[in-house]
Amino acid sequence: MKNKVYNLFEICNPKQWKTISIDNLDKNGKYPVYGANGIIGYYSEYNHEKPTLCITCRGATSGELNISTSYSYINGNTMALDDLDETKVDINFLYYFLKKRGFKDIISGSAQPQITRIALKKINIPLYTLNFQKKVASDLKKAEDIITFYKNQLLNLTELVKSLFTTMFGDIKTNDKNWEIYYWKDVLNIKNGKNQKQVEDIEGKYPIYGSGGIIGYSNAYICNENTIIIGRKGNINKPILVKEKFWNVDTAFGLEAKKDKISYYYLYYFCLFYDFKIHNKAVTIPSLVKSDLEKILLPIPPIELQNKFAERIENIEKLKFIKKTYLFPIKNRSVVA
C-alpha cells in the first residue's frame, strides 16, 4: 500500500495558547482545561470546539500526548495541534504514530525540558488512506484497552493480597490480634551481600541482585531460594521475594526465614507493609544497618495460619502469572512482583 510523507506542519498548525493559572480555574466552570498531564480543572470559556491532539511541551512530562474532549480549553504548557486536515489524517492515527515515534530528538533543555514549535518541524509522517488509518487506530485502541484491562486485573489481585494479609493477621503495626512478638534475629537470618566483580559470568546459573533487581549473573550464590531482598543502601523500602538461589551485592541484604517459625510469604508481606525509613541512618542515600534490623519486632501468628495464607497467595500468584502472559513475553520468572 502506497503512502505519502507529510511534514507535521502540512497537516496541522501547532500552537500554544494563553495560559490559565491554577488560581484562575473555576470549579464551577463548564469546560475542562487540559494541562501537561491531562485535565487540571475547569473554566468558564473554551478555546477548542473539536477534540484536539495535545503535546505536553513544558516540564518533566514533555512529549506526553492527550486528545482533548469537545469544547475544552487547552492551556499554554501544552502544544495544540490545531486546524488538523481531516481530509489527510485521522486524529487517532496521528496520536498512535506520535506515541510510537516519541520526542527524544525534539525535547530540548536540561533543567526544564521543553518542546518548541520550531523543533516540531522535524516530524514527518507517512500517511495512508483515511480508511486504512482509521482501521489501524481502531485495532491499536482495542489492543490498548485489552492491556489496560489486564493491568487493572493485576492491580486488583495485588490489592486482594494486601487485604487478605490484613484480614488474617490484623494490623501488624499495632498487633491488634495479640500475636507473640519476636525479634527478627530470632526468626530469620540476615545475609550480607558481597561485591560481585569476582563472580560475574554472563552465562551464569544464578542471578546477581542489587537492591533494585537483577544486575547480572554468576555461578555462585549466597542466598537460598525463597529469600527476601531489602536494600542496605538506596531502595530500602522495596522488598523483593526471590524464589531461586542468588548472589546479593553489598548494597542488599538477604532475609532467610527460619521455616519452623515463619513463612517466607508472611515475612515478605510484612516487609511490604513495614516502613524501613524509620531505620535510615543517612541523609543523602537511604541506608540500613544490620544490627538495627535484627531488633525489629515481628508479631508471629501460628505457623498453620501462615501456611494457609501462603497457600492462598500461591493460588493468586498463579492467576497473576496467567494475566501477565497476556501482557509480556513468557519468561522464566522467579521474582514475585
Number of domains: 2
SSE succession: EHEEEEEEEHEHEHEEEEEEEHHEHE
Computed over alpha carbons, the radius of gyration is 26 Å
CATH fold name of the largest domain = Adenine-n6-DNA-methyltransferase TaqI, Chain A, domain 2
Based on Cα principal axes, name the global outline. elongated
CATH superfamily grouping of the largest domain: DNA methylase specificity domains
The total count of helices amounts to 7
Structural class: alpha+beta
CATH class of the largest domain: Alpha Beta
Sketch the major β-sheet.
Answer: 5 strands, antiparallel
Helix % is: 25-40%
How far is the N terminus from the C terminus? 43 Å
Assess the beta-strand content as a share of residues. Answer: 15-25%
The side-by-side strand order for the widest beta sheet comes to: 11-17-14-15-19
**What is the number of beta strands?**
19
The residue-averaged pLDDT reads 90
In CATH, the architecture of the largest domain is: Alpha-Beta Complex
Which spans have pLDDT < 50 for at least 5 consecutive residues?
330-337
Pfam families: Methylase_S
GO molecular function: DNA binding; endonuclease activity
Family: Belongs to the type-I restriction system S methylase family.
InterPro entries: Restrct_endonuc_typeI_TRD, Restrct_endonuc_typeI_TRD_sf, Type-I_RS_S_subunit
